[in-house]
UniProtKB/TrEMBL annotation:
Keywords: Cell membrane, Membrane, Transmembrane, Transmembrane helix. The keyword Membrane applies. InterPro entries: UPF0324_pro (IPR018383). PANTHER family: INNER MEMBRANE PROTEIN YEIH-RELATED, UPF0324 MEMBRANE PROTEIN FN0533. The keyword Membrane applies. One of its GO terms (cellular component) is plasma membrane. It is a multi-pass membrane protein. It comes from the Eukaryota. It comes from Ditylum brightwellii. Coiled coil: none annotated. This is Uncharacterized protein. The chain crosses the membrane at residues 6-25, 37-58, 70-91, 126-149. The lineage of its organism: Eukaryota, Sar, Stramenopiles, Ochrophyta, Bacillariophyta.
Length: 159
């Protein structure tokens, strides 16, 4: 209904752009190795630790890289669970906008709900919907990354 299309736009419209731009920033600007840059970009874009875990298997990431990326997101999740809602309240952000922002940017569904609940029921409902839509796309994301990764590996072997 009323929330579905905007939530899909936030979750699936901005996410591919964020994934690609985060990956390129990591590899080109910060000169990160490909695998950790992809894991961090995926975590930042889609579901944090869950996405990192899914993509780490797809790209056969070393355990130490996976653990470091998940640790970074776990620490950030704790901070942003409380920082984002209070910032939204401080600046007078519309509750629906704050809910979409929180749902699209905080890792772990439980943290999303706890964070948005600081603001209002409206923010909580919207945050939950955005997060669930994001979570539902993780399988699609993993499949697309796997296809890209295999294509990339095949092209590398041809050179």
């Amino acid at each position: 209904g009323e929330l579905g299309l905007p939530a899909i736009a936030v979750a699936w419209g901005a996410s591919p752009i964020t994934l690609v731009s985060s990956y390129l920033i990591g590899t080109r600007l910060f000169k990160m190795k490909t695998t950790p840059a992809l894991l961090m970009a995926t975590g930042a874009t889609w579901c944090g630790a869950s996405a990192i875990s899914a993509i780490a298997v797809v790209v056969n990431a070393p355990n130490h890289e996976t653990v470091v990326c998940i640790g970074i997101f776990a620490a950030g999740t704790v901070i942003f669970t409380f920082a984002q809602p209070y910032f939204a309240l401080l600046v007078g952000m519309d509750h629906s906008v704050a809910g979409a922002w929180i749902g699209g940017s905080i890792d772990q569904t439980g943290n999303v709900i706890a964070s948005a609940a600081i603001i209002s029921d409206e923010a909580t409902e919207i945050a939950g919907i955005v997060k669930i839509i994001l979570n539902s796309g993780l399988g699609i994301l993993a499949t697309l990354v796997a296809l890209w990764w295999q294509t990339r590996a095949s092209e590398g072997q041809k050179k």
